Amino acid sequence: MATTLTRPTLNETAKPGRRALADWTASRLFEMIFNGELEPGSPLGEIEITELLGVSRSPIRDALRQLEESGLIEVVPSSGRRVVRRFDVNDIYELYTIRVALESLSVRHAAERITASEIRHLESLLTAMGKAKTTARIPAGRDFEADFRFHEAVCQASGLDRLHRILSGLWLQTRALLRHLDAAGIYPTGDELDHVVDDHAQVLAALRAHDAAAAEAAISDHLRLRRDHLVEAVRAGGGIGPNAAIESGDAHLSKVGSTSR
To answer: What is the CATH number of domain 18-84?
Structure first.
C-alpha cells in the first residue's frame, strides 16, 4: 500500500509532462499550506498560482482539483473563488468523530496482522514524536509529521487499502487544522504534547500484544480526548482567526461540552 501523505517532487533535470508538473504544483501548495506561507483564506486562483510558481494554467487546474479533493481548499459561494480552507469548531468535531469510527476499524484489523517490522517502524515514529515535542518551536510552526505517519502506518498494517484512501484526506485536513491552530497560538498548550505521545504509546503497546480490543479502545480514547481538548482550546481562545466566532448554540459543541474530560 503506497503512502499518500508524501507529496511528490519534481525532477528538475528533465522536462516534466503535465502530470508531473501538476503533481509538483500540488506538492508546493501542500507545503506552503503546512508551513504557513499560505494562510487560511488565502486566494488560490489560477492567476495567483501562475504568478507565485511560474506554472501554466493547465497543470494548475489539475493541482487545484487535487487540493479540493483533499479538502484543503474550498470555493467561496459568493465569489466562486478558491481559497485555502478556514477550519472552524464544527470541522474539529466532524473530522475527529469520523476518524474515531474509521481508525477504530483500522487499528482493530492492524492488531490481528501487524508484523514485527511494522512494530519496529511504529516504535521509530513514537521515538520521533518524543523528540519533536522537546524541540524548540520554529518560526514555521509544527507540522506534526511523525504523529500522522504513525496513524498512517497503523492503517497500512491493517491491509485495508480503501480505508487508507478514505483516511488520507481526513489526515491531511486534520494536519492543516492543527497547523492553523498552532500558528494562532491556540494549540497545543501545556503538557498536551506529552499526553499525545502517551496516547500513541498505549496504542503501540496494544498492537504489540495483538490485542484488538485494547488497541481500539486506545485509539478511540486518544481521538475523542484530542477532539474535546481542541474544542476547549478554541473556546478559550475565542475562535480560530477572523470571522470564526464560536456559536454557543451549536449542537455539536453542546455534545462535546458534555463529554469533555
So the answer is: 1.10.10.10
Q: Is the pLDDT of residue 38 over 70?
A: yes
Looking at residues 151-157, what average pLDDT do you find? 98
pTM: 0.80
- Give the domain 89-259 fold: Four Helix Bundle (Hemerythrin (Met), subunit A) (1.20.120)
Whether residue 58 contacts residue 17, with contact meaning beta carbons closer than 8 Å, is answered with no
HEC string for 202-258: HHHHHHHCCCHHHHHHHHHHHHHHHHHHHHHHHHHHCCCCCCCCCCCCCHHHHHHHH
Neighbouring residues of 257: CB distance < 8 A, sequence distance ≥ 6: 231
What residues does each domain of the chain span?
18-84, 89-259
Q: What is the mean pLDDT of residues 26-44?
A: 87
